[in-house]
Amino acid sequence: MIMHNPPHPGEILREDVLPELGLKIAEVARRLHYSREMLSRILNGRAPVSPDLAVRLERAGISTARLWLSMQTAYDLWQAEHREQPPIERFSEVA
Question: Is the domain covering 9-81 a CATH 3.30.1660.10 domain?
Answer without folding.
Answer: no
